[in-house]
Protein 1
Amino acid sequence: MRPSLRVSRLGSPATSLASVIPCCRTSHLCRLPRRLQSRVELAAPPARPPARRHFTSSRQRCADNTESEAPSQRPPKSRRGLWVVSTLLLVAGAYWTASDSSSHDQVHDDGSSNHRTGSSLNQETFVPFQVVARETVSPTAFVLTLRLPRVATPESRAATRQLINKAWQHGLWSIEVKQPQLQIARDYTPLPDVGDANVKSSDNDDVEIRIFVRTVPGGEVSRYLSQRVVGSTIDVRGPRLSFDVSSRLASREGSDAAPMGPAGQKQVVILAGGTGIATALQAAASVLSTSPSTSTIPVAILWANRLAQDTVGLEGGDASLANPVVRDLRALQAQYGADRVRVLSYVDAQRTFIQDSDVHKFVSGPGDHRGWGVSVWPFGSSTTPVAAPSPPPSASAMASAQPCVYHSKKTLERLESDPEYGSARACCLCKNASGRTPASPPGSSLILVSGPDGFVSAWAGPKTWAAGLERQGPVGGILRKMAAKDPKLAEWQVLKL
């Protein structure tokens, strides 16, 4: 019997060539040419769409199975997806933490803020202080008075008061003020209250902090503070202790220092630029308030400003015209005497600048016609020159045997601040020529340079950075050149503030 090729209609399941090939393969008479077999395969439609190789997953093929089959398990997510999800979770967690820690920094249109209250001033975290007063100094400068909010607990008030009182006893100190939107902070030196006490108290014995602020281009913190109104809150941290000027002078009440008279007393000269007058006032108040009543240590303040508006009222006249800073200067003179507190004013707009000859007038020492015996504008008065005796051993010479934190110039170059007053480290280590501790600390006359970085660098050289801290560094600038010519000035200590 002759084998035959069975052909079904197109679309029928039986059109597969595989169903008829077995019978044809039994005889060589039924074998078709390869071209004919290819045409038959092309003519016969498949029972289901062909699989697209390399692009169709096994999950898609499983979908063609009967519904009775169990669905396949979902394949694991790619590593890239897990990385994206993990990153988003970390970012969300960091944002939540930052939002939670600074939720009290949200500033409303009325100038108020959402703050967590009840904390006392400390050096680790920022706490809210309320703006209770704002006074204009010039078109670009003002004084803010800060106080703990009314909702603060009595314990917080007492702890804050104690901490600030200790800072005033130490000498120079500052606070950090935070700009909450950008999370940046800047140091401000509180102004002293020139009165019977160093801290200002209200009826509730609340400690107040006054800061002198100048709005400068690009200064985000100063711009933020310029927008604060009375009743709003500001985040504050501190205090940050700086230098103990009274211990460096050896002029504290109750110390073993010999009585200071015109013959051998120390002196303080302060070069202040702009808002650096806040540090000058703080240093002067510290020296004058902690020294014995018999002391006559003189303080000279040379204050440079760009505009004359900053010094309104400094020339005398109606006291009501004086701005808050000038009032403090005049009150300091009224309390301690114009002979002890000298003030010189310089204004860039009037082409008056601090000259090295002005500094020489005060570092030349008692008995020199260029020193305290001259009349100094605007609060000058004459004193009788006193002949200076043979100079005692200098503090730097006595500190050479063993580095003293207060009187060694090499040690000072590496310092950021002095030890806290009253601590175990707050002691003079000076030795005399025989290697013994002197009966009275030698002390050193001081030149303080305070103001913008350019002002400080021009007069005393730049500060240096080491181990993440800003340190004093060696003395440079104009004062270094002056010390090379004047041996008296070479014995003075220079503090960059």
Protein 2
Amino acid sequence: MSRNYCFTLTNGVQLDFKQVFDQYFNSLVLFSDRYLGEREESESLVQDAFLALWENRLEFPDEISVKAYLYSTVRNKALNVLKHRKIEQQYMNDILRDEDAELYYMKSVVEEETRRLIFTAIDSLPEHCRKVCLLNLEGLDNQEIADELQISLNTVKFHKKNAYKLLRDKLKDKFYLLFLI
């Protein structure tokens, strides 16, 4: 027993739903695809438009009105999809921006903690080693440090070598922090 899926126009003419589907489906998919650029999504959207046509069973004066209804439904659904995509993209951008801010904050915290550990270790150095190390960190070369502290160049090299050896020993357990920066 076969069912006849028809709907009646206001002028009394009956349209076979399957014929309307077969006649307009491909052109509606192409129409939708111009908006969405994705064939599968366009096919799904057109099927939804036909489902809405069948479920609503609106009265149309003629077949042209059915066609206009389908095209406007597909266009509106495609525009809704595009609007939804835009909202999703804005949401993703917000998430990325928040993640960037969080990463920046975490990096700042790690840098500050590393700086604190290094300067705490420097402060614990013997006086001459500490002075040579701090002047070196300020960008002075060995000769400038020697002139500033009024000591020989060899003494600067000795204190500098000794300072960095002591710092390596003090910071060896915390060396991993340097890789986080």
Protein 3
Amino acid sequence: MLEATRRWFQRNRTPVAVGVGVLGAGYVAAQYVVGKINDARERLSSERVAKENLRRRFEQNQEDCTFTVMALLPTATQNILEAMNTESITYQIQRVKGVSRAGSVATLSTAGPPSLADTALTEDDGKSMNSESGVHASQTTLPPQDQSIPPAESADKGKPNAESASTNKAETPAEPNHASGEAAGGDKLQIPQIQEPEAQDSGQAAAQAAAEARARSAAAKAARKTKRQLWADLTISSITRAFTLVYTLALLTLLTRIQLNLLGRRSYLSSVVALATPNFSSGISLENNDDIDSSAVYGSDFDTNRKYLTFSWWLLNRGWVVVMQRVEIAVRQAFGPLSPRDMLSFDQLAERVLSVRKMVEGATPDERRKAQWLPTLLPRRENEDEVIRESGIMNGANQDPSASLVGDFSSPTSPASLRRLLDETADIIESPSFSHVLTLLLDSGFGALIEKKVALGAYDLPTPDQMRPDSPEMREIRSSRVVLLPKILSILTREARVIGNSMPNEYHQAMEEIPELQAFAAVVYSSNWEAEIQTADDLPPSVSFSAPVNNPQSPLAIMPRSPASRSLSVVRDEEDESVVMAEPEQSIVIVDPAFENVWEKVRSGGQ
């Protein structure tokens, strides 16, 4: 049996050898194919996880932007409401109306002729509106004792105290329109102080008399402010305040998107580089490996991030003033000639609002791109230290007042990191993409204010569900239905507080629904990786960079080569054209090409 088997193998050893070789080769080939399949599966799985991680980080970043805007907006709103106190002007108009009614009753009781100063909307009021309406509404006050000071006192402000006091006592009964119990009581309290100059030094008496005369002159001027002039101030103040808040909200939304997405991009890159950095935990080494800090290399340290985010203080406390001044000039030109008795249709109102926006933003795309928004969002270099000091983040720190807070940090990499962040932010603000997205945000904000709130509250226009906006009936209603200007002003005055303080904020929600805002954030998050990749001198000794030879014209033609066990490459994936950070055995996709595709569609659709 064994001999027969041996003879069979001897006779067939060549076919047996060939068969064994074929089987071995097949096994090796099968193992190779299975290994490649497993590698491809692991690669796809890691890329899918990396893409999902990137998408999750990006979406979380946008949610952080929303909460940050809502946290910062009340600060700017408080400053704007304090600067333009429209409610104070409304109170003054009510007081003037009450004084006019009281004066009419007093005139009838004395059988004297009616006074032209107490009548509303006279010719003199219209003339005085053109000359005195330049006084800002926030600078107009009406002290309680103003009603007791007659206009004739302004002519006596240069006389001695005793003569002025006697003149006031003689003229007070002759002015029934300003006579009231409170005013008389106020004069009785002031007269003894004026009639006792001999109790003081002559120099002090003269100074006191001059000060009191100036105070009376200012009070008399405020008291003589007519109702028409107050209405003019109310018109400018209410419209300017609402429009300024819309502009501030849009600018704050874009600035926050830029800041947080720049920091999010740097944080993600820092985490990827940290994964590619070799681990020296095994064994004891005399080399100093503690200095290898990818977060410090890419500027994602806490101190730099905090100071960079602090620069939003400029818009909240200084920049909005520039916006308010630009808006006020445009509002005076568009709405200044109107009076409280003017009737406006919705189309006329929309046309005036559009003229204001053209004067503030620019009438053409070229003018809008040239609009200077950078001074409202970021300070000049000489004011950067002031921003950091005023923000309060340096409280409790031992900081030399003469040192530059932007360029003199304890960390050697912090100045360059912060400077690079500020410069990149300024470049983005001055880019055409910024002006394009800002215009869309303002369209959404003014649409929510005018097309919804004013259209429904003042004009009672049908909603889009009730009637198509482009129907002939709707166009007829928009052009024929008119309302008084005060009705529009009341809605704008009320909505000013809603724009800045409501939660949830429907104006901010309307702006966030703009798809171009999401695309703009994606471009900021996924662009300019070349600037983030540092040179070899700034990197840890375990990571070095060299340009690839195969594709030197690639947008990201930078490849880090590590002498250690792990390396990192930044290349373009030829299959999906996405930016890939690759190790020898895997790749991590960090830029989804859909981000850039979305923005390309946005740009092509807007042109």
Protein 4
Amino acid sequence: MLVQAFWLLFFYLLGLGVSLLIGGIIPGSVLGMVLLFIALALGWLKAERVSRIAELLIDNMVLFFLPAAVGLVTSVGLISANLVAILVAAAVSTVLIVAAVAVTQQRMEIRKRKRKIKAAGHETR
């Protein structure tokens, strides 16, 4: 489990380093997750190398959100003063995410159909 934690920490720190190099435009933790995803997708890192620690973190995710929830409770005045802006931002970002997912799904379906057609063409020869 310690080796698995090392890999997560490695990609987190790698993301922080890249974030510093690009001027902090994207948070290091986000870049670390993207780099970890790329390493997993390309097979540079096997999922088994991080699966147990990932399951442990997911199983205890509620504990990681407690400090954020407490922070929200202590900021009720600030939140209520900016409620309209927060709701507009949440609605707009939700619509943008749904649109991005829809476009991505459509493109993946088109690519899948093209591959099937291409594979069927090779089988008939």
